[in-house]
Automatic annotation (TrEMBL):
Catalytic activity: uridine(55) in tRNA = pseudouridine(55) in tRNA
Gene name as annotated: truB
Domain named tRNA pseudouridylate synthase B C-terminal: residues: 178-221
Function, in words: Responsible for synthesis of pseudouridine from uracil-55 in the psi GC loop of transfer RNAs.
One GO term of the biological process aspect: mRNA pseudouridine synthesis
Domain tRNA pseudouridine synthase II TruB subfamily 2 C-terminal: 233-288
Positions annotated as active site in the UniProt record: D40
Name of the protein in question: tRNA pseudouridine synthase B
Record keywords: Isomerase, tRNA processing
HAMAP family per record: TruB_bact
Family statement: Belongs to the pseudouridine synthase TruB family. Type 1 subfamily.
Organism: [Actinomadura] parvosata subsp. kistnae
């Protein structure tokens, strides 16, 4: 059986997240592989892949903060809000000034309501939005609350009727960088779309830990599940008796470590479970022993 843990992949462009999972199943020698947080085919960078028991962590890792490097092109709108779509409108951005761009970026920073792209995986009446959009249907998606903690402009490059804006964005789970590009362009009156996207961090796992598919084909480096949990969540060490209780799916008294997932470790330092505190008790989310 393959070792349980995380593989931090530097996803190449043109690959889907599913392509990466399929490849990692062959490399790791197990079918029990999944990923946390989908990346679009045009995007590159950090894709967290779980192997064996670590697949139980993925839903919790998906909810963590993420960091992206992006390039937004002002003056051109597409039907997907990125460079993979068809151009639907153009307007000269030659007169857009740097102060106007910074003002538009500031308005998209903090807690905002964001409408996802029509071509997204969100379900509408049981069907993925992108399937409806590609069938020619108009998809009405509701705005959702997201948090853009940082939206830092690194460079502004003008060229003819378009302006390219390089930025680093730190945001909550569920934030669409394509939508930020679209909304910045709309606010400036010239339209916009995303031309480059690289994810550099998912929770505590940054690009310095990531390895290319080629590197992983030569050496499959797996971050052990205990180390992965200790890096991502608060840690709680328990006694032998508490370890026995949690190992059987029982509840423990709350420790006051917070409302999110907490990693529980036994007397020998072994990972036992992820728990969530509700009132006075800590309830198991996933048990890794037995």
């Amino acid at each position: 059986m393959a070792e349980s843990g995380l593989i931090i992949v530097d996803k190449p462009g043109e690959w889907t997240s599913h392509d990466v999972v399929a490849k990692m199943r062959r490399i790791a020698g197990t079918r029990r592989v999944g990923h946390a947080g989908t990346l679009d085919p045009m995007a590159t960078g950090v894709l967290v892949v779980g192997v064996e028991k670590a697949t139980r962590l993925l839903g919790h890792l998906t909810l963590t903060e993420k960091v992206y490097e992006a390039t937004i092109r002002l003056g051109v709108s597409t039907n997907t809000d990125d460079a993979e779509g068809e151009v639907v409108a153009t307007a000269s951005a030659a007169d857009v000034t740097a102060p106007e761009i910074h003002k538009g970026v500031a308005a998209l920073t903090g807690a905002i309501m964001q409408v996802p792209p029509q071509v997204s995986a969100i379900k509408v009446n049981g069907q993925r939005a992108y399937k409806k959009a590609r069938a020619g249907e108009e998809v009405a998606l509701a705005a959702r609350p997201v948090t853009v903690r940082q939206f830092d402009v690194l460079d502004i490059r003008a060229g003819g009727d378009v302006v390219d804006v390089d930025a680093v964005i730190t945001c909550s789970s569920g934030t669409y960088i394509r939508s930020l590009a679209r909304d910045l362009g709309a606010a400036l009156g010239v339209g916009g779309h995303l031309t480059r996207l690289r994810r550099t961090r998912v929770g505590p796992y940054d690009v310095s830990l990531a390895r290319s598919i080629e590197q992983l084909s030569e050496e499959c480096v797996i971050l052990p599940i205990g180390e992965a949990v200790a890096a991502a969540f608060p840690r709680r060490d328990v006694t032998a008796e508490e370890a026995r209780i949690i190992g059987h799916g029982g509840r423990l008294p709350a420790s006051g470590l917070g409302t999110g997932p907490i990693g529980v470790f036994g007397p020998e330092g072994e990972l036992l479970a992820l728990v969530e505190e509700q009132g006075r008790v800590a309830k198991p989310l996933a048990v890794f022993v037995g």
